[in-house]
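Customer escalation, tier 2.

The customer says the design service returned an amino acid string that "doesn't look like it belongs to this structure." They asked us to rerun it and document both sides in this ticket. The original structure tokens are below, unchanged.
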């Protein structure tokens, strides 16, 4: 109706409103009104400032420009994951099927060649040319053809998902609303495709011959190259150099898709359908308010744009880190100590000590900081895999502490499953006078020495000890052996093996044989000075081990170390369960109560609706319809660690103030 009205106005204007051979200007269309509002509001200028202030654009353009090869647009950055035409269509069908029946049916008709309006055309890249003799880009042409050139890599999948999505809002033609908002739905689909690809199961990875690490890098590269392409639209819009409506289409696609991915996953499809219906009915007002966006609220828009820039920065940093990781792994083959710089961080790789370790430090260290330590979880004798996991652990912790704190990751090697379980400091690690704990202490001392020599900085004597799963067993046991070194221990996913420092049980659940193993008496006074922050998911026991059973022959929980002989001797675990309970949560509750009565500073949080990890959450929901919307604990973990560390700093500051007041008196 709106389009018909605009055409009638044009006709009337031509016939009746000629003055001095000039045609009177027509009233602005809805899209022109919105364009003028956005331009006068200045949000796109703000966006460009946010990008220039938040990113090293010269570095990014250089990095990605070099990768383009013969491609004209940075958006079409070549990707490394290779796919055939059939594989591309197969994954596209799977992806659309994951979004619900309505979208899946529409997409399948096109992808299967059964659509009465749109014909799918796949051609080798360069086979079809545009008017200027250049290879055609992916497009929906003449409202009848979905054209996708074949490049033979993951771009083909992104292009086909993007272009098929374009057909979903074309039932009423190219409406005015579509001219402004028409790129939003395809870019939202691309971002959902990112998520889908990153969560591909092992079966599909193998089926399509994809390498997961390469796939992750491809997804990141696609996100950054899309952002850089939209950045060029922003620059063009502000300079007045291009087609403002076309530039605005792509700019809004970046803004709206960013907010779209923050929506609750189950509501995304319905919200996207609302947008497409608004486009079909030419309702620019409802389209502009999609996903809770208010283009007139400048403050809110600034927050959104800041998030977009921050995400682009984080993603590009991950790509650069991956590149740096490869350099580190190659250098590590020399088995010498070395240092690399990544951004504002220095990474010290120490491979010549008894226990290899990495030390991550900010380029500017201050006196009185607390060293954070977490051991590696991976059990292998492959040195490169161990170093890679140690670097990943260090990066994760560095993100949690915003790059402001020194971090130590000792790297514990395992020769084979029959060897002592060094990742968990099991009893066998200390047989025949062996003392791997002292090698860890040496690594801590060496890290402090490096910081003193390189940065002229003295850190606190006591450390913040972090751990999850196997590294949490390490944390609770290292705290037993060397309580004098620990300020705070943040321990997740090992509530079944919390030790009680009394003579009822042998190590690692008690201290009955402590002196025999370590040649010293247990230091209860220092142990009482440690703050223990324990946490565990409420669904921790739902996944069972296929190799461990309880006293009645039932499969035991996978992550309850009380049942894992390699971690806890069978006789020690059996006595613990008899005294404190077969169920891990009952046992943990009783253990925490006993420890508090002993004067131990311990807290124990159970996180509702959480499993040990995301993989197990997916498995539970797949096999049992009663489990819905459950997750692994990782999304809560960062906040727990950050909170534990922050509380430690507050305690330290309070103690400093008290000491200063005593000195004044």
């Amino acid at each position: 109706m709106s389009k018909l009205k605009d055409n009638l106005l044009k006709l009337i204007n031509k016939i009746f409103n000629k003055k001095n051979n000039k045609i009177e200007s027509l009233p602005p269309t809805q899209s022109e009104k919105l364009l003028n509002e956005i331009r006068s509001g200045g949000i796109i200028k703000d966006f460009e400032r946010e990008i220039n202030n938040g990113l090293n654009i010269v570095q990014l353009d250089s990095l990605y420009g070099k990768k383009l090869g013969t491609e004209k647009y940075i958006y079409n950055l070549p990707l490394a994951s290779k796919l055939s035409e059939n594989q591309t269509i197969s994954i596209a069908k799977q992806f659309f099927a994951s979004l619900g029946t309505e979208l899946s049916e529409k997409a399948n008709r096109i992808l299967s060649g059964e659509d009465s309006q749109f014909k799918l055309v796949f051609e080798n890249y360069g086979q079809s040319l545009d008017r200027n003799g250049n290879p055609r880009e992916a497009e929906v042409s003449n409202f009848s053809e979905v054209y996708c050139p074949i490049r033979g890599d993951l771009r083909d999948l992104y292009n086909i998902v993007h272009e098929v999505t374009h057909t979903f809002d074309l039932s009423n033609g190219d409406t005015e609303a579509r001219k402004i908002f028409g790129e939003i739905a395809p870019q939202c689909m691309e971002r959902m495709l990112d998520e889908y690809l990153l969560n591909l199961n092992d079966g599909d990875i193998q089926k399509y011959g994809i390498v997961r690490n390469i796939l992750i890098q491809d997804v990141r590269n696609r996100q950054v190259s899309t952002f850089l392409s939209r950045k060029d639209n922003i620059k063009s819009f502000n300079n007045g150099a291009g087609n403002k409506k076309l530039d605005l289409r792509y700019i809004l696609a970046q803004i709206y898709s960013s907010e779209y991915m923050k929506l609750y996953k189950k509501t995304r499809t319905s919200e996207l359908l609302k947008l497409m219906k608004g486009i079909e009915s030419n309702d620019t007002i409802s389209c502009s308010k999609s996903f809770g966006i208010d283009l007139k609220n400048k403050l809110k828009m600034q927050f959104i744009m800041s998030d977009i820039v921050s995400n682009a920065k984080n993603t590009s940093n991950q790509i650069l880190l991956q590149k740096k990781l490869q350099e580190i792994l190659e250098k590590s083959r020399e088995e010498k100590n070395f240092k690399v710089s990544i951004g504002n961080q220095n990474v010290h790789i120490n491979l010549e000590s008894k226990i290899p370790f990495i030390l991550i430090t900010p380029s500017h260290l201050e006196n009185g900081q607390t060293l954070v330590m977490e051991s590696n979880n991976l059990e292998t004798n492959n040195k490169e895999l161990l170093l890679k996991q140690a670097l990943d652990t260090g990066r994760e912790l560095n993100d949690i502490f915003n790059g402001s704190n020194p971090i130590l990751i000792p790297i514990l090697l395992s020769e084979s499953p029959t060897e002592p379980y060094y990742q968990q400091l099991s009893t066998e690690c200390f047989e025949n006078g062996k003392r791997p704990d002292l090698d860890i202490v040496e690594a801590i001392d060496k890290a402090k020495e490096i910081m003193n020599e390189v940065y002229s900085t003295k850190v606190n004597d006591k450390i913040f000890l972090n751990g999850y799963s196997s590294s949490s067993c390490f944390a609770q046991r290292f705290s037993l052996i060397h309580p004098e070194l620990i300020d705070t221990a943040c321990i997740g996913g090992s509530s079944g093996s919390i030790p009680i420092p009394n003579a009822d049980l042998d190590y690692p659940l008690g201290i009955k044989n402590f002196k025999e193993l370590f040649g010293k008496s247990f230091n209860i006074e220092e142990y009482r000075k440690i703050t223990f922050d324990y946490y565990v998911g409420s669904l921790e026991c739902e996944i069972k081990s296929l190799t461990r059973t309880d006293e009645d022959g039932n499969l035991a929980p996978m992550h309850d170390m009380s049942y894992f002989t390699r971690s806890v001797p069978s006789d020690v675990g059996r006595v613990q369960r008899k005294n404190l309970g077969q169920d891990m949560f009952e046992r943990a509750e009783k253990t925490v109560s006993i420890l508090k009565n002993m004067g131990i500073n311990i807290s124990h949080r159970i996180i509702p609706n959480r499993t040990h990890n995301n993989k197990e959450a997916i498995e539970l929901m797949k096999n049992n319809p009663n489990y819905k919307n459950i997750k692994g604990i990782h999304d809560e973990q960062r906040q727990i660690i950050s909170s534990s560390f922050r509380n430690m700093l507050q305690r330290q500051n309070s103690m400093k103030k008290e000491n200063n007041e005593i000195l004044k008196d």
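Tier 2 assessment: The sequence is consistent with the input. The CA atoms of residues 230 and 251 lie 6 Å apart. The chain has three domains: 31-317, 334-416+431-455, 462-665. Sent an explanation to the customer and offered a walkthrough call.
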